[in-house]
Specification:
With 198 residues, the protein is mostly beta strands. The chain is built from two helices and 14 strands. The chain starts with 12 loop residues before the first helix and ends with a helix. InterPro entries: DUF7781.
Length: 198
């Protein structure tokens, strides 16, 4: 309950509440749906903490019960078979994968538990928001918010002041922007069928 004597209050509202709209990752995804599969080319640009570029070829089934995807990175000469995120609980997901590096002549596997909540000393929300611009063109935004909720306390007859307020903190950022372009033969057929009926 006692406040540390060396704790320093931020000098400005900008230190307490900061929203960064410059994305760290920019993805362009081109997808083609055919015969129950989705074939894709991903161009991934990372500008933080270092400038990096990845190109990936992606193959995954469209059936919802098929929970895997195959990725090949021609520049790094890596191939991976990765599961989709498998819900373990309402907020916890498990993802597993096996991969082979042709450059290193090595095979290995990895697993990852992810959640949209939690952080290091902070409460954290991580989420993706999708926006469909038109059929076949979608945008997806990955964002993060680290926060400490405001706190009001006080005391009477103690060394605590009668009223004390901690204004909390919010550090939010737009981490990823994805532009997704999907071409489907079914969608083209539906457009021509609708036009013929008119």
């Amino acid at each position: 309950m006692e406040r540390a004597s060396n704790e320093q209050e931020p000098s400005s509202w900008e230190e307490l509440y900061n929203i960064n709209l410059m994305p760290h990752e920019i993805f362009l995804k081109f997808r083609k749906e055919l015969q129950g599969f989705r074939v894709g080319v991903n161009l991934e640009l990372y500008n933080y903490p270092m400038n990096d570029f990845h190109a990936k070829l992606v193959l995954k089934p469209l059936a919802p019960q098929q929970r895997w995807k195959l990725l090949y990175e021609p520049l790094q000469q890596d191939v991976q078979l990765v599961s989709k995120k498998i819900p373990v609980t309402k907020f916890l997901n498990l993802q597993v994968g096996v991969g082979h590096s042709f450059q290193l002549q090595a095979t290995g596997w990895k697993w990852k538990l992810t959640t949209c909540l939690g952080g290091d000393g902070f409460s954290r929300i991580r989420n993706k928001t999708s926006l469909g611009l038109c059929p076949g063109v979608d945008f997806r935004f990955g964002w993060r918010a680290d926060y400490v909720l405001p706190e009001i306390n006080g005391g009477l007859g103690s060394d605590e002041p009668l009223f004390n307020m901690n204004s909390g903190r919010l550090q939010a950022s737009l981490d990823r922007v994805e532009a997704i372009f999907t071409h489907s033969d079914d969608r083209v057929d539906a457009i021509f069928t609708h036009t013929d009926e008119m």
